[in-house]
Design brief:
Elements: H1 2-18, H2 25-73, E1 79-83, E2 88-91, H3 93-99, H4 103-106, H5 121-134, E3 136-144, E4 150-161, E5 167-176, H6 178-235, H7 241-271, E6 280-283, H8 284-295, E7 305-308, E8 314-317, H9 319-335, E9 342-350, E10 354-361, H10 368-372, H11 393-403, E11 407-413, E12 417-425
Parallel strand pairs: 7-9
Antiparallel strand pairs: 1-2, 1-5, 3-4, 4-5, 6-8, 9-10, 10-12, 11-12
Helix pairs in contact: 6-7, 7-11, 8-9, 9-11
């Protein structure tokens, strides 16, 4: 291309000369030198000066990159560079200050010299698989200083590849996290200490509450028995209608309060661990029939029908506590049912190890908010209604069934009723 351009230029100049008038000797010499300049300088620029300029620019860029690399290498972070065989070929000043190893100590030595011995081969295998597969690895690692001290650090390893894609070097940069780990341990110890202290205080407070409830319940039962006894004696007297109604009010309220006292006493016994569990082989059908007989009188007021679909199973549970749980669930299903409603009793095998006993009603059901408050002591979901209750029964039932290695739960659709269930071990 350069030759073609020169030929065109030479042709144009010769045509121009042919049109000029005859020149003197000095004019011809001047013209020859001018023509020579036109031809020589472009050729010299293309062949000499431009390549030289390009080379100078590349050298300036390379020098700048080397300067930046040198500054980065002598940063505050410890850096080690190895060859493809993990032999150390260069370390910076920060590396020596952190590890205690001088350049003379480690150059030409395998990077294994830094290992603490706390990590197994599987750890290093996974680390290098990441480096080779992803070109990078970072994580917490424990290494050993020259003085033998084992310390934690956050290490980043980068694989450097050549033009052919093969690894030529590894660059490792680490941060000593000894101080951070020390602070974390102090916080953990402090947290554990505070947690244990809070736990002990909570246990003492719970024990004090249980003892208070137990003592209070015993103290209240004595005068309440006296109130009920004298009310029953008054009932035997010749009373007019108003006096009889008043005595009935005393008896109703007294029995309700006595029931509350007994349940508080039960709860305090359970929470203090004083409830004795005596699991034994039981026939489920017999237990259910006994409970149905006891709650049958409660069905008369609102004409509730009990539908028994229980299949007989041999279970392993405490008979007295199981009855207490079932009576609570069944009496609730009757109390909170609609007039003329039903209580459906059923059972099914669950996981081949337990039997699930279900007590379903056809009442108004419970909302999600109400369901979230179940099994909490003194939480009456229908406190505004005229239905009597203490708000402790379900809480006691939950604790009792869990003491027998069972569980309790509920499902409900608002407006359609509830289905409470318990799971007890099979024999």
């Amino acid at each position: 291309m350069l030759i073609g351009c020169t030929f065109v230029s030479e042709t144009l100049v010769m045509l121009l000369i042919d049109r000029l008038p005859p020149l003197s000797q000095w004019q011809e010499a001047l013209l020859d030198s001018t023509i020579l300049s036109i031809f020589i300088f472009p050729v010299a620029y293309l062949l000499v000066f431009r390549p030289l300029k390009t080379q100078l620019n590349k050298q300036i860029d390379a020098d700048e990159k080397l300067r930046i690399a040198a500054v980065a290498f002598e940063s505050q972070e410890p850096i080690v560079i190895t060859d493809a065989e993990t032999t150390i070929i260069k370390v910076n000043k920060a590396f020596s200050e952190s590890t205690g190893y001088t350049k003379q100590d480690v150059i030409g030595v395998k990077a294994k010299i830094l290992r603490s011995g706390l990590h197994d081969e599987a750890f290093y295998k996974a680390m290098w698989e990441s480096v080779l597969g992803n070109g990078f690895w970072q994580g917490e690692i424990w290494d050993r200083r020259k003085n033998g001290e084992i310390y934690p650090k956050w290490l980043s390893i980068t694989a450097v590849k050549g033009i052919d894609g093969r690894v030529t070097h590894y660059v490792g940069i680490h941060t000593d996290i000894t101080e951070r780990k020390r602070r974390e341990e102090e916080i953990k110890q402090l947290s554990d200490s505070e947690l244990n202290k809070a736990k002990l205080e909570a246990e003492r407070a719970n024990q004090a509450k249980s003892e208070f409830l137990s003592n209070m319940s015993h103290e209240l039962r004595t005068p309440m028995n006296a109130v009920l006894g004298f009310a029953q004696l008054l009932e035997l007297e010749d009373l007019n209608e108003d006096q009889h109604d008043n005595v009935q009010e005393i008896l109703t309220a007294g029995h309700h309060l006595m029931h509350l006292i007994n349940e508080i006493l039960d709860l305090s016994k359970i929470e203090s661990g004083k409830t004795e569990i005596k699991p034994e082989k039981l026939e489920l059908e017999a237990i259910m029939q006994s409970c149905i007989s006891l709650v049958q009188p409660l069905t008369l007021k609102n004409q509730i029908k009990i539908i028994n679909k229980i299949e007989n199973r041999t279970i392993f549970a405490d008979a007295l506590q199981l009855k207490q749980i079932l009576l609570n669930l069944m009496s609730n299903a009757i109390k909170y049912n609609k007039v003329g409603g039903s209580v459906i009793l059923s059972s099914e095998i669950s996981n081949q190890k337990t039997v699930k006993i279900k007590v379903a009603d056809t009442g108004n059901g419970l909302s999600q908010l109400q369901l979230s408050k179940l099994f909490q002591p003194f939480e009456r979901l229908n406190a505004q209604s005229s239905i009597e209750g203490t708000g402790i029964g379900l809480c006691i039932s939950k604790k009792l069934i869990e003491n027998m290695n069972g569980s309790i739960g509920v499902s409900s659709t608002l407006g359609e009723g509830c289905c409470f269930w318990i799971e007890v071990p099979l024999d």
